[in-house]
UniProtKB/TrEMBL annotation, chain A:
Residues 30-50 have a biased composition (Basic and acidic residues). One of its GO terms (cellular component) is alpha DNA polymerase:primase complex. Transmembrane segments: none annotated. Pfam families: DNA_primase_S. It comes from Cladonia borealis. Its EC number is 2.7.7.-. One of its GO terms (molecular function) is metal ion binding. This is DNA primase.
From TrEMBL, chain B:
Belongs to the eukaryotic-type primase large subunit family. Pfam families: DNA_primase_lrg, DNA_primase_lrg_N. Residues 303-486 form the DNA primase large subunit C-terminal domain. This is DNA primase large subunit. One of its GO terms (molecular function) is 4 iron, 4 sulfur cluster binding. InterPro entries: DNA_primase_C, DNA_primase_lsu_euk, DNA_primase_lsu_euk/arc. GO terms for biological process: DNA replication initiation; DNA replication, synthesis of primer. The lineage of its organism: Eukaryota, Fungi, Dikarya, Ascomycota, Pezizomycotina. Binds 1 [4Fe-4S] cluster. DNA primase is the polymerase that synthesizes small RNA primers for the Okazaki fragments made during discontinuous DNA replication. It comes from Cladonia borealis.
Length: 513, 510
């Protein structure tokens, strides 16, 4: 950037950003495998450390000493079905008018009456009957005082629910399935016997990674214009995961503020080791480079079929969502950035001249100028093929998904659970129905206080005759209903396939003998 | 006894094998068969050998690995490497093909060669399993050795070996090949149209070829990767590498128990010591800067002698009062390398992160600094002195900076305009130097660019030490380590004599 100053050389980063969800300390730089068991390790893995005085195995564990009693209520997994009790009787929630979504009683009422524990259990367990897929699964709670509690595990969904209601965390995360119940990890004879076995393949898209190209908002703020970056990203990644990798059980979840997570539950995805996760992330990663690296898309020609297809998906978005909505090259300094990405100096000089003469010329016009001046013969040296490739690279740089690939590379990474409340916005982390992807409105996602109000409003109405006798779940009284319904249907289809897989496996074994 | 030691690893190892292989592994204590010259080293040795054989075989293999590693440091081409290694292999670790003997695989001397190859691999696997660094180096060189042997193998025997692996490869039908021709051609770089149409193609699970997937060099459809027949070696190598890495991890878990056997431990320790990184000696010599005051308060002043990568991190840190993870790691290890002790390093970071509370610092950052110094993490014996300061090689090739990250090498990871601006900020305004840097960077000669800037910044001092002959040519060799840069810069500027023990440029780094 010829106009850049020393000050521009350094990207501001804000360590104190209030809801920084990204792991600041990816584990793979250090030799973490050796100390996976160390409590300090959590700092490396997730960047949300435990206070020294609140180590889970010291004081916080004491908070949980009634857990064992609870376990005895469910002596064997055969006896329980993993059913989660339905909503409690309709008692008005009657929140104080000033109640905020961060208030503990709001959180508690949400977990008690709305959180879909039953489907969450089935989703993670891959079956109705409790199995190790759930029992050996790590949950990590963020408590109301911001302490972070790792390695929680529960034999059944109902026990998870009970503990969530008792601890009332402000949110919780989901980790891998381990070789043993994470809670018992200290009792294992050999510490190395405790290691992750499986986890959903996950992806994380966060709009802060688009800050250098989005003009409408920055940091934690979003609007409908920049949400279209997430929409594009979901389209491209979802398509690649289905068509190229053959995955079918992909759920996208709104992260509650400015991004989305993907959870892929196909068995084949769940058992992938870190090397394969890294390979898959690498396949999907196109926009690379740090704050100062200049051109960020450098792809080979001919374009790989995945890139050709992605470009095809993205080019309409580029015209509408980028050129028109973001208008990224309106000002002269910003237009310089565009020129930097173009290959021909004489053409650039002609463009610069034209744009200097017409201040405020829109990005769409500037983009069109490139071809019209090229056709008009503004440069004798112009290589048409290079120009086309540069333009393709620009489209990709401004539209191709910017994934936080570190999250995808490790089985051991934890990710916020669907349906928890985002602490900064109060919105529920709802699944996104990809069949109606472009209709998804992040700013229209219900907040926890709205939902609790809807229950009260509903209960206040007189029930019609025909509704009586039929128990209505609390979530059905609220605008959370379509999201829970979607989740239920999604989980049902996952369970159906999983059942088929199990039968196949039994048949396979039978053949061997 | 030795046999039993192997058995300690054995059950776990065996549990990862499939049913069929398990059946072969169960009759232990028996001589193993070696139908092929090549070995994927999936099944650990089970027969007894003498302590002398144990040591001698391992040492012989170690010679080969050390030579192979040296070839890679000297940037030898595959052909040069093969020419150098082949006679050494003949001498220390011969491995003949079945056709070399009329008795084929039943020939007793062939069996012995293969047994030695098999056992020595597993002994070294054990010896080098103790740290991540050793494991990675060992795996890398063993893969190079396997590749060399695979390429030189008799074509028919190689095919028989590949078939014996029972890899799940499905042949792509002519019809499918034709319907996918464009995609296959576009997804698979370096293939001629004719090769696409007439060559053989395999369909394998994409998990089988992670390297091809990661670099987008293969066509994927519905979970299958379409691989041209000439990538066969890639797949076999990938399979070899993967099995080896898993095996090394298992060995690492088993290692502590071997400590009980006081006869093997010294041998294994001795073997791994012979394989120690020269990298770790770097911090020894470079931390001994006589006369320099190195503490938390002196870093600002000293930073004028830092190479551009570290200078950039320092400036970023001062500007933002923060650095992202890899930046902190790269900079912390550098500071450790110049002789900043742990206590001062913690003070340095605590003061630098102005915007956060002590509580946050202690929670989020203190541990990582201590970890880098080897103060915490792992067990005390293995962690040693923590991590070595990163060499240029490592900074250039590992973990390129992502969005908002400022670590890495500015010569490589900055655009040329931003690089020029940064250089000007640090006082490099000479047009010729800047033009030279630009040319170096375009040719991807990042070291040369950095050395060019060094020579410019200290040109008067260099001239002086050359004239008074206080420094020799070796002491003004190309710099390939940020800590060498600092040490040399500091000594030049303070008029110190060239110190003994400065780490030499091409010291290896894996
Ligand atoms: Zn916006």
């Amino acid at each position: 950037m010829p106009h850049s100053t020393a000050a521009d050389l350094i990207t501001p980063s804000s360590p104190l950003e209030e809801d920084s969800e990204l792991p600041d300390a990816p584990p793979h730089a250090l030799d973490v495998k050796e100390e996976r068991e160390g409590d300090n390790q959590k700092e490396l893995e997730i960047g949300v450390p435990v206070r020294e005085d609140l180590k889970p195995d010291i004081k916080l564990e004491d908070l949980f000493d009634d857990v064992d009693d609870e376990d005895e209520e469910f002596p064997s997994s055969g006896a329980t079905t993993g059913m989660v009790e339905s909503s409690p009787p309709a008692v008005p929630i009657a929140l104080a008018p000033s109640a905020k979504y961060t208030d503990p009683e709001v959180m508690l009422a949400f977990y008690q009456r709305l959180f879909p524990f039953r489907y969450l259990f089935q989703w993670l367990n891959h079956s109705i009957k409790p199995s190790n897929d759930f029992g050996h699964r790590e949950f990590a709670f963020t408590l109301q005082n911001d302490a972070y509690l790792r390695y929680q595990s529960y034999p059944t969904g109902d026990l998870l629910r009970k503990d969530v209601l008792r601890v009332n965390p402000s949110r919780f995360e989901i980790g891998p399935v381990y070789t043993a119940p994470p809670r018992d990890r200290k009792t294992l004879r050999k510490s190395t016997a405790f290691r992750p076995m499986a986890k959903e393949l996950v992806f994380d898209i966060d709009l802060t990674d688009y800050d250098e190209i989005r003009t409408c908002c920055s940091k934690a703020n979003i609007c409908h214009k920049c949400w279209s970056f997430v929409t594009m990203a979901i389209k491209v990644v979802d398509t690649a995961l289905r068509e190229d990798f053959g995955f079918q059980h992909i759920m996208w979840v709104y992260s509650g503020r400015r991004g989305a997570h993907a959870w892929i539950s196909d068995k084949r995805a769940r058992i992938m080791d870190d090397q394969r996760r890294k390979a898959l992330a690498g396949y999907l990663e196109v926009v690379k480079g740090g704050a100062q690296s200049g051109k960020k898309v450098n792809v080979k020609r001919p374009l790989h079929p995945h890139l050709a297809r992605s470009l095809d998906i993205l080019k309409d978005h580029f015209q509408h969502d980028i050129l028109e909505d973001q208008d990224p090259w309106a000002e002269p300094e910003k237009a310089e950035r565009l020129l930097q990405l173009l290959p021909d100096k004489a053409l650039n000089d002609a463009l610069r001249k034209k744009w200097d003469a017409a201040p405020g010329r829109s990005s769409a016009s500037k983009w069109a100028d490139i071809d019209s001046l090229a056709k008009a013969g503004a440069s004798k040296t112009l290589d048409g093929r290079l120009l086309l490739e540069a333009k393709q690279d620009i489209v990709l740089e401004y539209t191709y998904p910017r994934l936080d690939v570190e999250v995808s590379k490790k089985q051991i990474h934890l990710l916020k659970s669907p349906f928890v409340i985002h602490p900064g916005t109060g919105r529920v982390c709802v699944p996104i129905d990809t069949r109606r992807l472009t209709k998804f409105d992040p700013l229209g996602v219900p907040t926890v206080t709205e939902l609790l109000g809807e229950i009260d409003d509903f209960d206040g109405q007189d029930l019609k005759e025909e509704d009586e006798g039929k128990k209505i779940q609390d979530y059905e009284k609220t605008s959370l209903k379509p999201y829970v319904d979607y989740f239920r249907t999604y989980v049902a289809s996952l369970l159906k396939d999983e059942k088929g897989l199990k039968r196949e496996r039994i048949d396979d074994d039978a053949m061997e003998f | 006894m030795i046999r039993q030691d192997y058995n300690r690893i054995d059950p776990k190892r065996r549990s990862t094998l499939d049913h069929k292989k398990k059946q072969f592994a169960i009759p232990t204590y028996k001589q193993q068969e070696y139908p092929h010259r090549l070995n994927l080293y999936e099944v650990p040795p089970t027969a007894e050998i003498t302590l002398e054989q144990f040591e001698q075989w391992a040492i012989d293999r170690l010679r080969i690995l050390a030579e192979l590693e040296a070839c890679s440091f000297r940037n030898k081409t595959p052909a040069e490497t093969a020419a150098h290694i082949t006679p050494l292999l003949q001498k220390w670790l011969p491995l003949h093909s079945n056709t070399s003997s009329s008795a084929g695989a039943q020939d007793e001397s062939l069996k012995l060669e293969r047994q030695k190859d098999h056992y020595s691999h597993f002994i070294l696997r054990l010896a080098f399993s103790s740290t991540e660094d050793l494991r990675r180096r060992f795996a890398r060189i063993e893969c190079a050795l396997f590749k060399l042997r695979f390429q030189n193998d008799d074509a028919r025997e190689r095919q028989a070996f590949v078939e014996s692996l029972q890899l799940d490869w499905e042949v792509v039908s002519e019809d499918e090949k034709r319907s996918l021709a464009t995609n296959l051609a576009n997804a698979t770089p370096g293939l001629k149209q004719k090769e696409v149409e007439e060559g053989g193609w395999f369909k394998v699970d994409f998990e089988t070829v992670p390297e091809l997937v990661e670099s987008r060099r293969v066509f994927l459809k519905a979970g299958k990767a379409y691989v041209p027949v000439k990538e066969q070696m890639t797949m076999v190598l990938a399979g070899f590498n993967e099995r080896l890495e898993k095996g090394l991890e298992l060995a690492a878990r088993a290692f502590p128990r071997l400590d009980e056997d006081d006869r093997l431990t010294p041998i294994l320790n001795h073997l791994s010591k012979n394989f120690a990184t020269p990298d770790s000696t770097l911090s020894d010599s470079d931390s001994a800067l006589s006369g320099a005051t190195i503490n938390a308060a002196s870093i600002d002043g000293l930073s004028q002698h830092f190479p551009l990568c570290m200078r950039n991190l320092h400036m970023t840190l001062r500007k933002n009062s923060h650095l992202k993870h890899f930046g902190r790691l790269q900079y912390t290890l550098f500071l450790k390398g110049i002789g900043l002790n742990l206590e001062d390093c913690l003070i340095f970071w605590r003061q630098a992160f102005k915007l956060i509370t002590d509580d946050t610092f202690n929670k989020e950052y203190r541990y990582n600094v201590r970890h880098a110094y080897g103060d915490v993490g792992g067990d005390a014996i293995r962690r040693g002195r923590g991590y070595s300061p990163f060499s240029c090689q490592k900074i250039l090739t590992e973990h390129p900076p992502g969005n908002g990250e400022t670590h890495g090498c500015p010569y490589r990871h900055f655009s040329i305009d931003n690089l020029t601006t940064l250089l000007q900020t640090t006082g490099v305004n000479d047009r010729d130097v800047l033009r030279g840097v630009k040319e170096d960077v375009e040719k991807k000669r990042y070291h040369i660019a950095c050395n060019r800037v060094f020579e410019f910044a200290y040109k008067d001092d260099i001239k002086r030490v050359k004239e008074d002959k206080s420094w020799g040519a070796a002491e003004l060799d190309t710099i390939v380590h940020p800590n060498s840069y600092f040490k040399r810069a500091y000594m030049l500027s303070t008029g110190a004599k060239a110190g003994a023990g400065e780490s030499r440029g091409d010291a290896m780094e894996l």
